[in-house]
Amino acid sequence: YKFVAAPVGAGPFKIFSDDPGQQLVMQKNTLYWDAKNVYLDGITWQNTGLDAQTWLTNLTISTIQSVPMFGALTSPAVLSAVKSDPALSMLQGASTNVSILPVNTFKAPFNDIRARQAINYCMDRGAIAKDVMQGFATPAYVLSGPDSQALTGWQQGQSLNPIQYNVAKGTALVKAMGGLSFTVSTNSPSPVLTALQQQWAQCGIKAQINITEEYLSLVQDGNYQAAYTVNVNASLNPAGSTNYLDPNAINNKFGWKDNSIWTLVQQ
Known about the structure:
This protein has helices at about 1-5, 50-60, 75-85, 115-120, 125-130, 155-160, 165-175, 190-200, 215-220, 260-265, and strands at about 15-20, 25-30, 40-45, 100, 180-185, 205-210, 225-230. By secondary structure, it is α/β, with parallel strands linked by helices. The protein has a 4-stranded mixed beta sheet with strand order 4-7-5-6, sandwiched between helices. Helix 4 (about 115-120) runs antiparallel to helix 7. The longest helix has 11 residues, at about 165-175.
């Protein structure tokens, strides 16, 4: 138990006190091999909750001195406020968080390829990244992220995307189908979803947004038409894992299955 409360390590800091889930206080480790070059006497890790506006307030009044903010999960208005405040310093790095919008191809309307094509034709990813996310995101046109080894940048992904933004083509598909409407299930509100709803409406697509705590259950049971969430990796699975490859996995009820790929994985 004592080791769990105050584990022994070889790093520059050691645990002084711990209030699980609330606060962790660490002090400089005088036995650290390079202690003379450790310039902080200690670090306090404080649970500041999940509200980005509260983080900004705490930074402004110096209740906290630093906080990680993830672009896909943080309001772009808050990020812009931090960036424009001369009293604050922002260090920007590549984010591994990816916004994903899987659709259930086992059920209507997305068992019709025209529906899948229509929402893509009517989705202006570049405008969302630039205007809605205020430049704190990059558009993804194929399954990729900033840490992708396969692409040199999002521009290359755009060139590989066979369905470019085209309202006229999207509208024609919707008319040919006699209309297109569906519900997007999600676990939290997002300005991205609101923007998508407006963009799709330009093509005559009616999308409802269902914000529910039952989001994960709906996904795992396959009881949804489209889903939206933020993953920590470039996975198609709204349940957040790669079990979608296994045709027999419980998380494989979200609309993507490829027996050829699963056979290769088995090999």
